[in-house]
Design a protein that fits this description.
Blueprint (H helix, E strand, L loop, with lengths): L3 H32 L9 H4 L1 H15 L11 H25 L7 H32 L4 E6 L3 H13 L4 E8 L8 E2 L2 E6 L3 H7 L4 E4 L9 H11 L2 E4 L10 E7 L2 E7 L5 H36 L5 E7 L5 E7 L6 H8 L20 H8 L7 H7 L3 E3 L4 E2 H5 L15 E3 L12 H14 L2 H16 L6
Parallel strand pairs: 1-2, 1-5, 2-4, 5-6, 11-13
Antiparallel strand pairs: 3-4, 7-8, 9-10, 9-12
Helix pairs in contact: 1-5, 3-4, 3-9, 4-5, 7-8, 9-11
GO molecular function: phosphotransferase activity, for other substituted phosphate groups
Family: Belongs to the bacterial sugar transferase family.
Protein name: Sugar transferase
Length: 471
């Protein structure tokens, strides 16, 4: 998002969403008492505790489904569809929690009224924002007036991108160049109005909202007078951040004290979508626990009866950004398995740094069964609750395997949180070579979306049930 007015509109819509959602909840509560007096009057305090959870779910889903996209990119139907999906999932999660927690004193009628009222109110907010945006575009009141420092290829590309992507409209007032001979020329219809040394005079003569430096890194020493001139005139200054020939997924700027810090991230990660992913992990895991815990107790008992030693095996694994964490699994091998690995490492049947053999003598009888059915992975749900893993993500690898990586790109998998299942799980598991496994992990990282996680989880169920590719 380039235009500052887009952020202002976003913040306004966000605040109006919160206000209208709270108002819709209170009106729904009042309406239920008014329309159904025979059913008994509800206690407002017994319902208010739902409001923080309700708002968190709703805002999270609204952000994920694009309900805060600029009106330039969303029409009425797109907003309505985003709101419908957000509201449906919010109410679905809320009703599921009430059902599993057996909370009976919350009126389902209040929740239904809230869904209808909030949907209509939030849709009205977006229609009003869209009309305001269209009016600003028509009368030109929202257009930014920009002065570009530079006349080369970088400056031309910047001007083109500004015209294509400026959401509220943009006018390039002109260009400045270090070379006086270029003054008076044109760059894609915008005049070269002076030299860099004349920036103070140019800013005084023209109405300019912001200045963009689009000159090569070798000329950045001229940035000081430009910055001082902009500061004196109270004009925003920006500069193109591609000062290094590095392709990155996202560039952002933060400030540490009074020092600006440019951040270049290799993987694009939207905080709001990651929040929804984390919320989904917690809700699904907590809802599954009443069914999973008895099964885990049975598996733990079987492991203990089959061979001496603890039921849970804990191993340090490499997680997000190579931070180590203790990963939990049901023990599927004898206690001396780690020591015996050196003796049988020459039998490795897997390519790359991972170790796999079809008839591993270290695996117990119960261990072979729980590995084939993936029951040994169930304790990793506690890693999900602790925030060390996600339900879906590249598998966490052992320190031994990571130390054997022979290419830097293999470490890109550490840019996201590891998971219990991923594309490899639904594509052959142990039948895959290490290169295929890595390619699928990198594909997941590049193409990640909430719906991809849902698709992988749904496809994991038959893959596990039919033991596809299990070893």
């Amino acid at each position: 998002m380039y235009d500052p007015r887009s952020k202002e509109l976003d913040r306004t819509v966000f605040l109006l969403d919160l206000i209208c959602a709270v108002a819709a909840f209170l009106v729904a509560f009042w309406g239920r008492n008014l329309l159904l007096p025979a059913a008994g009057e509800l206690n407002i305090y017994s319902h208010l505790f739902l409001l923080p959870l309700l708002l968190t779910l709703l805002i999270g889903f609204l952000s994920y489904f694009g309900a805060y996209k600029n009106p330039r990119y969303n029409n009425f139907l797109a907003y309505a569809w985003a709101l419908f999906r957000s509201m449906a999932l919010t109410i679905g999660v809320l009703l599921s929690l009430l059902f599993f927690l057996e909370i009976q004193y919350i009126s389902r009628m209040v929740i239904l009224f809230f869904a209808i009222l909030a949907f209509l109110a939030l849709l009205a907010i977006r229609l009003a924002a869209r009309e305001y945006f269209k009016k600003s575009i028509r009368d030109g009141s929202g257009s930014l007036r920009v002065l570009i420092i530079g006349t080369g290829d970088r400056a031309r590309e910047m001007a083109r991108n500004l015209r294509n992507q400026a959401e509220w409209g943009i006018k390039v007032v002109g260009h400045l160049d270090p070379d006086p001979d270029r003054v008076g020329g044109e760059i894609d219809g915008a005049p070269v109005i002076g030299t860099v040394a004349e920036i103070s005079e140019c800013l005084k003569r023209n109405v300019v909202d912001e200045v963009i430096i689009a000159i090569p890194r070798s000329l950045l020493e001229d940035a000081d007078p430009i910055a001082h001139a902009c500061e004196e005139e109270g004009i925003r200054l920006r500069f193109m951040a591609d000062i290094f020939n590095v392709q990155v997924a996202r560039v952002s700027l933060t400030q540490i004290g009074h020092l600006p810090l440019l951040t270049m991230e290799p993987v694009a990660q939207d905080e709001s979508k990651l929040f929804v992913k984390r919320l989904f992990d917690l809700v699904v895991t907590l809802l599954a626990m009443p069914l999973i815990l008895p099964l885990m107790a049975v598996v733990a008992l079987a492991v203990r009866l089959d061979s001496p030693g603890p039921a849970i095996f804990v191993q340090q694994r490499v997680g997000l950004r190579k931070h180590l964490f203790p990963m939990f699994k049901f023990r599927s091998m004898y206690l001396d398995a780690e020591e015996k690995l050196k003796e049988i490492e020459h039998l490795n049947e897997a390519d790359g740094p991972i170790f796999k053999i079809s008839n591993d003598p270290r695996i117990t009888r119960v261990g072979r069964f729980i590995r084939k059915t993936s029951l040994d992975e169930l304790p990793q749900l506690f890693n999900v609750l602790r925030g060390e893993m996600s339900l879906v993500g590249p598998r966490p690898m052992s320190i031994r395997d990571v130390d054997l990586f022979d290419r830097g790109i293999q470490r890109k998998r550490f840019s996201v949180k590891p998971g219990i299942t991923c594309l490899w799980q639904i594509s052959g598991r142990s039948d895959l070579t290490f290169e295929q496994w890595l390619a699928l992990d990198l594909e997941y990282i590049e193409k990640w979306s909430f719906w991809l996680d849902i698709k992988i989880l749904l496809k994991t169920i038959p893959a596990v049930l039919f033991s596809k590719g299990a070893m």
